Amino acid sequence: MKAINRIIDSARAAPKRIVLCEGDDARILKAAQRATREGTARILLVGDAGRIRRIAADEGVDLAGMELVDPATSALTPSFAQKLFALRQKKGMTLEEAKREVLKPLCFANLMVRLDHADGSVAGAVHTTADVVRHAIQIIGVDPSFKLVSSFFLMMLCEPFHTLKGGLIFSDCGLVVDPDAHELSEIAMAAADSARSLLMDEPRVAMLSFSTSGSAKHAAVDKVVEAARRVRELRPGLAIDGDVQLDAAIVAEIANRKVDNSAVKGRANVLVFPSLEAGNIGYKLAERVGGAKAIGPLLQGLQKPANDLSRGCSADDVFYVIAVTVVQAQTAAERLPDEKRS
Q1: By C-alpha distance, which of 156, 175, 176 is closest to 166?
Q2: For residues 164 and 185, what is the distance between their CA atoms, to the nearest angstrom?
Q3: Which residues contact 36 (CB under 8 A, 6 or more apart)?
Q4: Cα 241 to the chain's mean position, in Å?
Q5: Strands 120-123 and 166-171
Q6: Is 168 helix (H, G, I), strand (E, B) or coil?
């Protein structure tokens, strides 16, 4: 079964409340309709309710089973403004500014997640990645287990011509530009957690470099080696190789020749890139030349899930990200069953 189908099946087994703040976009509405009809998620649409209904009617989208929340009329808005003020007053936000800001759908949607009125958020079909990430960090907050928020792509290699089959996690391909060794180790551990929940398999992490087992000497290699060392120290049971070149990470025969005492043995399902430059190039090569399906950019390291979309996304892309967000929310609920974020 394709990895994305396993994710969709898992989402259907225990659908979560996913808030979408771009309901005036036809792609979002079509994905929301599919998620509702297939039982993948319980959809909340935040925005101008009248405009959402008009666009849905124009697009032939049935809103039955979805909840529309208009910040201009919602009973939640006054308390949300107070909460936003409490969160941001030390950064200089006034109560009047909070009252204006909370009327913006992206802000309101993230507050719904923060205050447990929703389990996860998806945005980015209209908003920029910078806006999506900034609101998620400022309002939902960073998971105390991590020091930073990073991103990953879920890469699907499911076509007949793919010799390497299944799903892979590529990280970080969209957010942290030039991580130091500490940050790179945080990215690797978050990506391993993402693999465990989304690929439903034990993570096998390759810390990518232009060097394998010290074959090259350079500060860029030292960073990867140090990051891998820290991960081994903090996650002693995690299968991880680093520094390792891409071929030795995913081809068993090459790993056997080039990597001494390999824990991954050429079967990596998590590829951690040494920089955003390498990661961005890598995922686009896999997508455009290798024919992989790229789902993301997805965020990791938040207290609760909030995911980004490409502004060029299709309705299918949005549906897949909704399903991923549901599974992330399931994992968050299992990790913190009794804790309420406030």
Answers
A1: 156
A2: 26
A3: 42, 43, 64, 65, 66
A4: 23
A5: unpaired
A6: strand
Nearest in space to 270 (alpha carbons), one of 326, 166, 336, 191: 191
Sign of CA dihedral 231, 235, 240, 241: positive
pLDDT in tens, 168-219: 999 999 899 999 999 999 999 999 999 998 998 899 999 999 999 888 899 9
Q: Which CATH class is domain 3-137+310-335?
A: alpha beta
Which ranges constitute the DSSP H helices of the chain? 3-13, 26-37, 49-59, 77-88, 95-101, 105-114, 129-135, 181-198, 219-234, 246-250, 252-258, 276-288, 315-335
Fold match between 3-137+310-335 and 150-293?
yes
Tokens, residue 315: 């309705």
CATH architecture entry for 150-293 = 3-Layer(aba) Sandwich (3.40)
Q: How far apart are CA 38 and CA 35, in angstroms?
A: 5
- For 226-257, write each residue's pLDDT tens digit: 999 999 999 999 999 989 999 999 999 999 99
In the sheet with 306-308, reading across from the earlier edge strand, the strands are 67-69, 42-46, 17-20, 120-123, 306-308
